[in-house]
Design brief:
globular, four-stranded antiparallel β-sheet, Alpha-Beta Plaits, 93 residues, alpha+beta
Length: 93
């Protein structure tokens, strides 16, 4: 049986990072770290680079933020979902 994560601790954080190199360094750290409730993905929009982190607890959120800011001091959080509103995929607009 899968362990349910309390809605108040689950969050998605999006960080705008300096460039591709910083993004890849950050993703490597998250790939290698032993935190099963932290998932990081990278994306880009034209010349902007982002790291998207899903966290399962407040401690993981703090860990993710500190890790990103240590590796890229210019990184800025552009989005934080306070809590999950619904389960499953988002409906089409």
């Amino acid at each position: 049986m899968d362990e349910q994560v309390p809605p108040q601790s689950w969050s998605i954080e999006i960080y705008h990072v300096l460039d591709h190199d910083h993004q890849q360094r950050i993703l490597e750290v998250f790939r290698d770290v032993e935190r099963p409730k932290v998932v990081a993905l990278g994306t880009q929009s034209e010349h902007d680079w982002f790291v998207i982190v899903e966290v399962g607890s407040i401690e993981d959120r703090v860990f993710a933020s500190r890790t990103i800011r240590v590796l890229d001091p210019r990184a800025s959080r552009t989005y934080s979902s306070g809590r999950r509103q619904m389960a499953g995929p988002l409906p089409a607009s």
